């Protein structure tokens, strides 16, 4: 078995893949206890933006929000409401989200739909970090927002914002397709106010193990 | 006569322009930090369904895949010869036809040999 | 009356088991038969292989933690004569509970026994792949035990 | 082995068809050892959606646990409700009024159609007919989901059935809407069937692929359309008729070879049977009548244990309940058909090419909420 393939997880380097995965999960369980602040610093203070920056902003923000490619990160029941939103009745492609990309390389928006368990948390963070900036996260469903029905279970992450910074929270269990669409609208308002002058990364990279 | 080549020149200019814009634009935007750009970290790791890649990836594959590719290559090169011949068929006359048949015969022998040595069976 | 999966005649089966493997039946009610853990494998092969019983379909397997002991519960069904029998095995040792594995007779028991090991902590000897099935490798404790506090 | 193959020794290659993979219908992971394209070994890895439902059920009382059952097999919430509620009624000896039984049968059969639509749609999606059949199947499912929403207000997790009956009675416009749906459904299923059954691509990808013989199906204790696809005539609605199923006449379709095509055909045929059952149920539905037996909210069933099972869309879905006469179930075990059906996956996938692996996996039709519980 090649060595360079093994990801160095903190101080532990383990050959057996399951032990390595278990070690990473335990590490995350101990470290990820504080929710990461939502990346919306640019919405508070008003910015000194000259004409050139604002016009460039509007063009860039319009182009970004008009064609967001979501990543189909379906975990549980909310995944089927997400697919129903993508289906022909509640057509999400009216808002530019035509295709659901399976790989993070071609996706801009990660819709975390369903219950996130601790075993899936390292995969979620790795996929989030493998997405290219600018990237956004919608936490869909009360399980993603706060662990929901399974809040005090031994294997459920109480809230996705412990792992990745979340931009829009869509409540519901599962949220109706219309509320997911209103979540998408909320994301549009957020993108509209982004500015290159601030030049902050929308999604600060989370804690690297 | 010269004007005929003007289209080629125009095409050349468009091509170069297109390539310059497509490659240059991200570099310019990145330099003025309009577009976020931070590679590295976990982003550079290979994506394998959210898991850590494990084990060797430079492994020795079964030979039949290479054999299949070689056969495709032989037939692909044939196309390079067939196209100009087919376009000028009338002027070249039957002598060209015979020479192409010889070339096709040679390739056919190689093809049948590959077929008989079970290159196309996947089991 | 259409055919019903009527609970198997436990009296009849218990007597037959007692005849073939003396001392194996620990307890019998008209819902279930409880056998001693060490005789479980023999009893299961009798149930499966005797032609007229023919319990060829293991429906499900689970375990219950009665805080003084564990109880492994199997439900075997005979598809041919539409009978369903609940087979139990009691396991008193709480530190290192071990029960013979039935994957030799029914391949369907493989995953379910791994689930019992993962959530209840009962090990099955000569099980081909005795590992946790749901929880990750570093997880300490077995959640479905009564002494495992949720939060 | 021809000469050149013997000469070149190949090395296995480890690949994760991991938790986040388009064709694994949720967070299911298969660690594949590959020789080129052929799968040498498969290790299915579960647990990426394990939420500890059985442990949480021990902290809730009997009525609250209904909510948990919705989220297990989220494609067949009504059947989950019915299975759980059935076993509690069997334990506590509660008689359900006649009208509630008929409504439960209608809901369960509608759920079976919706779940089979999803199974067939995503199976064809894996086979390469990208998104077109799924979008058609979603159009039908939206009609069924509208009916459920009309009855209980939710689209996916219905929480509709209660111990001893139902939470709401049918609104007036339900039966006409149901009648319209059930009248058009056979024609729509025939349309899909004609479109797909003779399609040679589907035949090439499904015929004699992933054959599960009759004996190994029984030995692996698979259930539902997978078992019936292998030619075993075993359906809980016939073998152990619960609720009012003994009053309906319907046929149990079975396959012959046990390959992907037979499982597909069994599901399509079952959809037709379900529409037949709903037609009969609409006629026999008592117009008025109680829909909820007198059951106290904090029910304390007698000490004892029970196993109640239902023929869910994925297979036999059973609840093994142990009660100690307290408010909370002492132990609740779920016989999850998707989880047990996956026991046969490894046997089906070894020696198969990757492209067929996702088709075979799709034909088993699992739902991760039920696999990982």
Describe this structure in words.
- The complex is a heterotetramer of chains A (about 210), B (about 120), C (about 150) and D (about 375).
- Chain A has helices spanning about 15-30, 50-65, 75-85, 120-130, 140-145, 175-190; strands at about 70, 110-115, 135-140, 170.
- Chain A has about 210 residues and is an alpha/beta fold.
- A 4-stranded parallel beta sheet of chain A has the order 1-2-3-4.
- Helix content of chain B is about 65%, strand content about 0%.
- Chain B has about 120 residues and is mainly α.
- Chain B has 2 domains: about 5-45; about 65-115.
- In chain D, about 60% of the residues are buried.
- Chains in contact: A-B, A-C, A-D, B-D, C-D.
Helices and strands in order:
The complex is a heterotetramer of chains A (209), B (123), C (151) and D (373).
Chain A: H1 17-31, H2 51-66, E1 70-71, H3 77-86, E2 109-113, H4 121-129, E3 136-140, H5 142-146, E4 168-170, H6 177-192
Parallel strand pairs in A: 1-2, 2-3, 3-4
Helix pairs in contact in A: 2-6, 3-6
Chain C: E1 6-7, H1 10-20, E2 25-28, E3 32-35, H2 40-49, E4 57-65, E5 70-78, E6 83-91, E7 98-100, H3 109-120, E8 123-125
Parallel strand pairs in C: 1-6, 3-6, 7-8
Antiparallel strand pairs in C: 2-3, 4-5, 5-6
Chain D: H1 3-7, E1 13-17, E2 29-35, E3 38-45, H2 53-57, H3 65-70, H4 77-92, H5 98-127, H6 132-152, E4 161-162, E5 165-166, H7 174-197, H8 200-206, H9 214-219, H10 225-229, H11 236-239, H12 260-284, E6 304-312, E7 315-323, E8 331-335, H13 337-341, H14 345-349, H15 354-364, H16 368-372
Antiparallel strand pairs in D: 1-2, 2-3, 4-5, 6-7, 7-8
Helix pairs in contact in D: 4-5, 5-6, 5-12, 5-15, 6-7, 7-12
Short description:
The complex is a heterotetramer of chains A (209), B (123), C (151) and D (373). Chain B contains three helices and no strands. By secondary structure, chain B is mainly alpha-helical.
- Compute the CA-based radius of gyration of chain C: 16 Å
User: How many extended strands of chain A?
Assistant: 4
> What share of the residues of chain C does DSSP label as strand, in percent?
25-35%
CATH superfamily of one domain in chain C, by name, is NADH:ubiquinone oxidoreductase Nqo5 subunit
The SSE order of chain C reads EHEEHEEEEHE
Kindly, what is the distance between the CA atoms of the first and last residues of chain C, rounded to a whole number of angstroms? 50 Å
Mean pLDDT of chain C: 88
- The helical percent of chain A reads 25-40%
Text of the CATH class of one domain in chain C: Alpha Beta
What's the CATH architecture of one domain in chain C? 2-Layer Sandwich
| Fraction of residues in helix of chain C | 10-25%
Low-confidence stretches of chain A: 1-13, 201-209
CATH topology of one domain in chain C: Beta Polymerase, domain 2
The geometry of chain C reads as: globular
The DSSP helix count of chain A reads 6
The number of helical segments of chain C is: 3
Q: Note the quaternary state here.
A: heterotetramer
Shape of chain A: globular
Quantity of strands of chain C, as a count: 8
- Strand-residue proportion of chain A: 5-15%
Terminus-to-terminus distance of chain A: 23 Å
